[in-house]
What we know:
By secondary structure, this protein is an all-alpha fold. It contains five helices and no strands. It has one domain (19-71).
Amino acid sequence: xxANRIDDAQLxxxxxxxxxxxxxxxxxxxxxxxxxxxxxxxGRIGISESYWHSLRYGQRKxxxxxxxxxxx
Length: 72
């Protein structure tokens, strides 16, 4: 098993609505299809692993990424 493997159970521990959950979900689905981990997801969209975790857990908003990053 890959280190830092994406775990769906951790995505929304408290079941609160997450801004940008559709985009986060699509990124997680793509990662699962390609059998890649958190580092690869963050790297592909040009953000740090810690920033990706902040997005996943609702500590940052998708809108804070900026247009250039989202267009990748």
